[in-house]
Design brief:
single chain, 343 residues
Length: 343
Amino acid sequence: MFFSKFFKKDHLHYLAQGTKHLAAERYAEARVDFLEAQSCCPAEGAEEARQISTGLSQAGNHLAELNLAEGSYALNAGELAKAFDNFTLALQLADDPKLKGRAEAGLQQVDQPQPVPAASKKAAQGGGHGGSSCGSCKDGGTQSLEDDQGAGMHEEDRFFLLVQPLPGDLPARYCALGEKFARAYLLIHEGNDAQALPILQEMQLSCDNDIVNYEVALIMYRAGRAHECEELLKCSLRLNPGNATSYLALVHLKADAGKYPEAISIVNRMKELGIMADQAQYMLGELLEATGDQAAALEAWSQALELPSVAKAAAERLIPILTGQGRAEEAKYLAKRYLKGCC
């Protein structure tokens, strides 16, 4: 199901996401997905590990090229600190030796061996010199980069990239929650709920925040505490009725428990409020199919065909149904229009 991996995501999920983002030239998101896939890929998944490594290399090289271009522009404009940042990040991201060579050559053209104070974290938070490296959530982005050579991206960079796929204004809101939250979020993505939970619970004591409640809710679910998860998600929605991820999580929670009528009710509410209405329409088809109502599911997915973001996925679900009903011509039409002729 579309929602079956919401709470439990394996390396195949992240590999698929990374491949999709790479094809869409969303290289920062692709790199994060491939890093996640790499971290949870089992030892026996040799072929998947190879694909992950290839995707990670491609995403890193593309990001390096973007930073090389920005670095050259900054150097020509006399912005030496920014040029240093871009070339350093390009060197860290690149897998291609030629790109690494270009980054090293760029660094040699910068007169200073260390970035100026404007590139520090403090300056970045206060505005700094403006602009940012590709793949960085702060101006500059060089603090501690030297310490992280060969060990992955700087924590702030990684956090920024991880939250970018979130819907609506959530990426900016996540970044605004501060370093403590960012650390907890990274711990969660490293599979370390035990260390992340106390940090988030301390934040809960100091303020009511829908995002913090949402993240704690997911930890509760993974710990097998579904009731607490549900209460926290409901609290999140009381604090912010427009939090799309909390709605989605509540739908997934109900569906996982087999409470399909309740999940359908939530999905319909999302559609009424215009909250991720396209995904809600697609999920409606899945939920209806799960109840055994294939006719209603077919209708829901037929309506989803009018929504570009989910049209292909809806067609993929409709084609086997139509084929099974002897409606081969309709199935072929959908394949031609939405799947480039492939069933």
